[in-house]
């Protein structure tokens, strides 16, 4: 198991007022092209037309963390 397996999650709104979505797309492309062994399982999620942090939810992030911790406990 890789140290980063299942731990990289990146979210961006496509209408980001800081234009971070452009670099997020580039990072996703570079990750998929360059990381072959081991292959990246990073999750990139985009919310259409959302601005910077518009759809950010602390609750959702905490729920994702709790789910990962549950998965670790069952291993």
- Summed over residues and divided by their number, the pLDDT gives a mean of 85
Q: What is the rounded distance between the termini?
A: 12 Å
Count all strands and give the number.
2
Number of helices: 2
Largest sheet: 2 strands, parallel
Secondary-structure element string? EHEH
Assess the beta-strand content as a share of residues: 5-15%
What does this 3D model show about the protein?
The chain is of the alpha+beta class. It has one domain (9-73). Helices cover 41% and strands 13% of the residues. A two-stranded parallel ribbon has the order 1-2. It is flat and about 40 Å long. The mean pLDDT is 85.
Features:
single chain; 75 residues; alpha+beta; two-stranded parallel sheet; 2 helices; 2 strands; 13% strand
Topology:
Blueprint: E1 9-13, H1 20-34, E2 43-47, H2 58-73
Parallel strand pairs: 1-2
In a nutshell, what does this entry contain?
With about 80 residues, this protein is an alpha+beta fold. Helix content is about 40%, strand content about 15%. The protein is flat, with a radius of gyration of 14 Å.
């Amino acid at each position: 198991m890789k140290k980063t397996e299942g731990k990289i999650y990146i979210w961006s709104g496509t209408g980001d007022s800081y234009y971070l979505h452009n670099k997020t797309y580039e990072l996703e492309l570079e990750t998929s092209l360059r990381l072959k062994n081991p292959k990246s399982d990073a999750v990139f999620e985009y919310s259409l037309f959302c601005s910077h942090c518009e759809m950010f939810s602390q609750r959702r992030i905490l729920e994702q963390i709790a789910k990962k911790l549950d998965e670790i406990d069952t291993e």
